[in-house]
Amino acid sequence: MRLQGKVALVTGGARGIGRAIAELFAEQGARVIVGDIDAPGGSASGRITWRDLDVRDLASWQAATDAVVEEHQRIDVLVNNAGLVGAYEPIDEISLQDWTRVVEVNQTGTFYGMRTVIPHMRAQGGGSIVNVSSIWGMVGCPGVAAYQASKAAVRMMTKNAALSYVADGIRVNSLHPGIADTPMIAEQDTAITAEVIAETPMRRAAAPREIAYGALFLASDEASYVTGIELPVDGGYTAP
Ligand SMILES: NC(=O)c1ccc[n+]([C@@H]2O[C@H](COP(=O)([O-])OP(=O)(O)OC[C@H]3O[C@@H](n4cnc5c(N)ncnc54)[C@H](O)[C@@H]3O)[C@@H](O)[C@H]2O)c1
């Protein structure tokens, strides 16, 4: 029960990594609110509730956050997990629409989330924010220009927030998954997935739960002296 009594808001928790995080957090004693544009299918446990949230929309954030605070009086943990790859083209080929679509979710969505939740965390005396970036926010690869830019921005917004709110008792860290077995990856070209797995020292994709354990550590009081870090959970991808 590593999150006993905590209230956690997890974005993009209807499927994939976000869903694994929501389920693990609930098992560890948290009351979890999943904010997503899609309702979760299948078995959401009794400790998980779902709320309509579009991370691109500040008003949607405000409505979701107000509802959580009204019901639970606090938000201890925010996981900014909602994200998409969206477009695989390099800078001179990506359409401006695709650029904006990806940046709006991955970067601006994370900014809006922190902007909306931080005042509540300050007022209650602290909290933990986990921003889900990627190995592609740490190391370069060809193509996927908007994804790389937005995930690198998440990494640095995390450090900025960690330093800005350290005196308020708010810890802010980024999580950098390697390739994980989720619907997002199932939807992409299998050749791309095979190439990334071949370049991963462990030679396999992660189960979403293996990524979720990284979020659990950062969210919990076990990480009470941890802020501003970037935690790769990547099968060794960024080690070389
Ligand atoms: N799967 C991987 O290999 C991998 C690797 C590194 C980083 N990541 C990151 O992990 C996070 C989760 O990835 P995943 O593979 O589980 O993705 P996924 O596509 O399987 O799930 C993403 C979830 O986010 C939700 N979402 C999308 N846009 C949203 C919006 N505007 N508002 C609210 N919710 C929205 C979707 O409805 C979905 O439930 C993403 O930020 C992704 O970039 C994934």
UniProtKB/TrEMBL annotation:
Its EC number is 1.1.1.47. Residues 6-182 form the Ketoreductase domain. Coiled coil: none annotated. InterPro entries: KR_dom, NAD(P)-bd_dom_sf, SDR_fam. One of its GO terms (molecular function) is glucose 1-dehydrogenase [NAD(P)+] activity. This is Glucose 1-dehydrogenase. Keywords: Oxidoreductase. The keyword Oxidoreductase applies. Belongs to the short-chain dehydrogenases/reductases (SDR) family. It holds the Pfam family adh_short_C2.
